[in-house]
Each structure stands twice: as C-alpha cells, then as structure tokens.
C-alpha cells in the first residue's frame, strides 16, 4: 500500500526539508511537499521529529552460532531496531565456526534465518592460511573481509602476519572488496605489558590498561598497512581507530589517492580516559579509550573527512566476562587484564553521538553521513540504503532531537543489559524505526517499547565478479 511519512525535518543528502516521504511497497517513491500529495494517500505526520535514513552499522559482533549466550541475531537486531539501525554487518569472529570459508558462511546464514528484525550482511574472514577461501567467499556474497594483525581474543580466528597478508592481497584485489583490519601490532603491546608487570602495576587501574595498549601499536600497524596499500592498491579500511596520532599519515594517504577509509566508534567519541574509574571494566575495549584531547582530535578528523564513518563495534558478552563480580574462589573483580574487551551500544549509539554533536554544533546531516551513507558505501549497499532518496529502501527513523532520557537496563534490548553508560542522561530519542516501509520499533514513554513487525529482516548478499 502506498503511504507517506511527513516531517518538517526530513534529512536528505542535499538538505533538511519540510516534506512528505512517499513509500510504495519496500521503497521510497518520492519526496515532495505535503501539499502535493494525492488526497487518497494515508499520511502519518511526525511534526517536528527529524526523519533520518535508517542507520547502517558495519561493525557488529552477533556471535551466533556458537556463542549465542553472548549475543544472537534475535537480540542484536532487536537492539538495532530500537537504536535506529536498519542494516547491520556482522563480523566473522566470536561465532563458531568462524566465517572463514563458504561452509561456515552457510551455517551462519541458517542461524540467522527467520530471526532478524532488521536487514543484515555478513563479512568474511581473512586469517592465517585461508587465502584459497577468499574468492569463494566473495562469490558467495560477502561484502568484504575482516582481519586481525594481533590475537583477537578467540582462538579459532587467527591473526594474519605480513607474509600471509601478502599472499592474500592479490586475491582480495581480484574481488574488488574491502579488507577491514584491526590495526594493532603486538611488539609494542608485549613490551608495554612486560614493563608494567615488572614494575608491579595495578591492573585494577584504567591507567595501567591504557598504558598496556600504547598508541605505537596502532601507528606501526597503520604504517605497515599503508605501505602494502601503496604496493597492492587494495581497498583498505581501518576499523575502530582510537589514536589521533595516526591522523597525519592517514591524511597524507588520502591526498595521495590511496583507497583508504577509516572508522571510529561512539565510545571513542563520547568517553575520555580521564573520566574512567579504576575497576570500571565495562569501559574496556581494544584499542583503548584515550584522552579527552585525543577525543576532540577524532571529532575534528570527522569534520575534515580524514575519518569517514562511525560504527559501533557492538561487542557484548556475559557479565561474568567483564569481571564485575567474582564467580570463582580466588578471582579478583575489576581487573582490566582479565576482563573481556568490548562495548555494546547498538540501542543507544545514536543518542550518544547526538549528545556530542549538539555540544559541538554539528548537524544531523553530518551525523547521517557518518552513520548511514558512508557505511553503506563501505559495504557496497549504497544503491539500496544509506540515504532518503527515491528508489532506495524505505528504511527510516523518527528521531526526537529535543528529548532527553536516562540509560536504564530496559532500554538496551540486547542480550545482557549491562553498559558503561548506565545512569547517564543522553540527548535524542528514537521514536520509531521503519524497515522497507514497515514499522519495526516504536518507543512509548507511557509503557514498554513495541516491536510491531515480525522478523522480516533479510540478508544482503553481494554479487561479485572476479577481475
């Protein structure tokens, strides 16, 4: 059925407009003044609520199959819908089996089937020794590949060294797909940890954890990757950049015309090391949250275009893995070296970011570029999602920029309702989310939120032709 959503603040790539978005089936048919609508088209008037394109998150750890007790497709996509995300791309590790061959990809597809409230795609993995699997994964529809230059925390997804990268890169170039890299190298980290342990450092202190993941680990990795990019001209994407010290070399690479893109995350843009209490292991992630001055430099890099996009790196785990309380005799709570590194934020990332954007006089159009259009381009989905334009999927978010709320467990919606942001007051409330024209989430202030649609999310599997 043809229907329309009217808002005085429709965020299009060109401008903020007072307009009606006409929806026909799954897609946007037109964007026009409400006065020009045919009289028989039903219209939902959103008033002053901003109408945004559905957000696209290209860095989500769903963990199913195999570790569904950490997170799963049903809970992750429920949290995504509540947060305004209509497309998410799942990382190939933390699940069992890891998505490093076509058989594992098909197993993950079977696990996702019929569970997802929003649309999704599935990255493939580039690990030590699986070069022969990369082209088959591309032909099977993955939008790109993820790799680690350092131990990722799970044994089955191995780090890839430079020699194996150089075996894989010609094959990745043939696919035309991006390689997403966790850019830290071990030598600087190993040296820092050895020094801290020798000096009797207290691992309950955040300062100790921060010192254990020095900027140099990122800088050395990114320098190596840029050299490889100059040689092989592959599409390089740096995930979760945390250190602003890498920005000058990335800016030079962009001016050279290297095919490099960069993401950072809400926790690096919202938090600062100086504000993290000792023992607050919910803030542990890798690379770590750095200083307030570093945070401001990341925001400036987004303004200038050195950083392209924001992705959540939604990485949940059971509470016991954060060492919030002792589960066995002899365990210590609050040790950063023993806690799992990851922050879950799918359901509240947009308010986290809008809170910070308002403080810096940044616009909704800028924010939707970083959280919708640019991630859609990275994943090869920009012909279908990422902006409010005729012909694209009617993935839309009604966002109340003037409202505030306090983070409480019932607003999180992912599997384990723990968060470093608990109790914070944030600016901006997702009121409704539509997936391909159908409402999949509605926030009710007077009662529990609603998820009125069935699990109609579907996979985006890319069509790849090897060059």
Helices and strands, with pairings:
Elements lengths: L1 E10 L4 E9 L2 E6 L10 E3 L4 E4 L1 E6 L12 H10 L2 E6 L11 H11 L6 E4 L1 E2 L5 H9 L5 E4 L13 H14 L3 E4 L3 H13 L7 H7 L2 H18 L3 E3 L8 H10 L3 E5 L1 H5 L21 H13 L4 E2 L38 H11 L4 H15 L17 E11 L18 E11 L2 E5 L25
Parallel strand pairs: 1-4, 1-5, 6-7, 7-8, 9-10, 10-11, 11-12, 12-13, 13-14
Antiparallel strand pairs: 1-2, 2-3, 5-15, 15-16, 16-17
Helix pairs in contact: 3-4
Q: What features would you describe in this structure?
A:
This is allantoinase. Its EC number is 3.5.2.5. One of its GO terms (molecular function) is allantoinase activity. Homotetramer. InterPro entries: Allantoinase, Amidohydro-rel, DHOase/Allantoinase_Hydrolase, Metal-dep_hydrolase_composite, Metal_Hydrolase. This protein is α/β, with parallel strands linked by helices and 467 residues long. It has one domain (53-388, 402-424): Metal-dependent hydrolases (TIM Barrel), CATH 3.20.20. The protein is 29% helix and 20% strand. The protein is built from twelve helices and 17 strands. It has helices at residues 73-82, 102-112, 131-139, 162-175, 186-198, 206-212, 215-232, 247-256, 266-270, 292-304, 349-359, 364-378, and strands at residues 2-11, 16-24, 27-32, 43-45, 50-53, 55-60, 85-90, 119-122, 124-125, 145-148, 179-182, 236-238, 260-264, 309-310, 396-406, 425-435, 438-442. Strands 1, 2, 3, 4, 5, 15, 16 and 17 form an eight-stranded mixed beta sheet that branches. The protein has a six-stranded parallel beta sheet with strand order 9-10-11-12-13-14. A three-stranded parallel beta sheet has the order 6-7-8. α3 packs parallel to α4 (162-175). The mean pLDDT is 95.
């Amino acid at each position: 059925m043809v229907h329309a959503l009217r808002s005085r603040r429709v965020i299009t790539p060109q401008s903020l407009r007072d307009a009606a978005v006409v929806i026909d089936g799954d897609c946007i048919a037109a964007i026009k003044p409400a006065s020009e609508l045919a009289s028989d088209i039903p219209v939902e008037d959103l008033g002053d609520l901003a109408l945004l394109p559905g957000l696209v998150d290209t860095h989500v750890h769903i963990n199913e199959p195999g570790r569904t007790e950490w997170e799963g497709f049903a809970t992750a996509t429920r949290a995504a819908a509540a947060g305004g995300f209509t497309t998410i791309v799942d990382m190939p590790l933390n699940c069992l089996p890891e998505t490093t061959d076509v058989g594992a990809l098909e197993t993950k597809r079977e696990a996702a089937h019929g569970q997802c409230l929003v649309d999704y795609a599935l990255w493939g993995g580039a690990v030590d020794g699986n070069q022969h699997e990369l082209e088959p994964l591309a032909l099977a529809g993955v939008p790109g590949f993820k790799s680690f230059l350092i131990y990722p925390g799970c044994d089955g997804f191995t780090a890839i060294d430079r020699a194996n990268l150089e075996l894989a890169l010609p094959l990745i170039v043939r696919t035309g797909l991006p390689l997403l890299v966790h850019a830290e190298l071990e030598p600087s980290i190993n040296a820092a940890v050895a020094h801290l342990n020798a000096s009797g450092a207290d691992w309950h202190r955040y300062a100790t954890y921060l010192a254990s993941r020095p900027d140099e680990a990122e800088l050395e990795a990114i320098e190596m990757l840029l050299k490889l990019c100059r040689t092989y001209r592959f599409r390089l994407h740096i995930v979760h950049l945390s250190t602003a010290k890498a920005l000058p070399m990335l800016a030079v690479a962009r001016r050279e015309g290297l095919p490099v893109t960069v993401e950072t995350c809400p926790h690096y843009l919202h938090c600062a090391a100086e504000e993290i209490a000792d023992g607050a292991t919910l803030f542990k992630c890798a690379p770590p949250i750095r200083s307030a001055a570093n945070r401001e430099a990341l925001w400036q890099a987004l303004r200038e275009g050195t950083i392209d996009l924001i992705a959540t790196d939604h990485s949940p785990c059971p509470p016991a893995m954060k060492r919030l309380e002792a589960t066995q005799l002899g365990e210590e709570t609050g040790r950063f070296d023993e806690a799992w590194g990851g922050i879950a934020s799918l359901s509240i990332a947009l308010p986290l970011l809008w809170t910070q954007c308002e403080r810096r006089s940044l616009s909704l159009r800028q924010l939707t570029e970083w959280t919708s259009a640019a991630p859609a381009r990275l994943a090869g989905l920009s012909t279908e999602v990422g902006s409010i334009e005729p012909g694209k999927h009617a993935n839309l978010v009604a966002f109340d920029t003037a409202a505030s709320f306090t983070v409480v467990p019932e607003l999180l919606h992912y599997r384990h309702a723990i968060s470093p942001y608990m109790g914070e007051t944030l600016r901006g409330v997702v009121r409704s989310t539509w997936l391909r024209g159908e409402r999949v989430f509605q926030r009710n202030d007077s009662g529990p939120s609603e998820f009125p649609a069935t699990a109609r999310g579907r996979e985006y599997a890319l069509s790849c032709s090897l060059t």
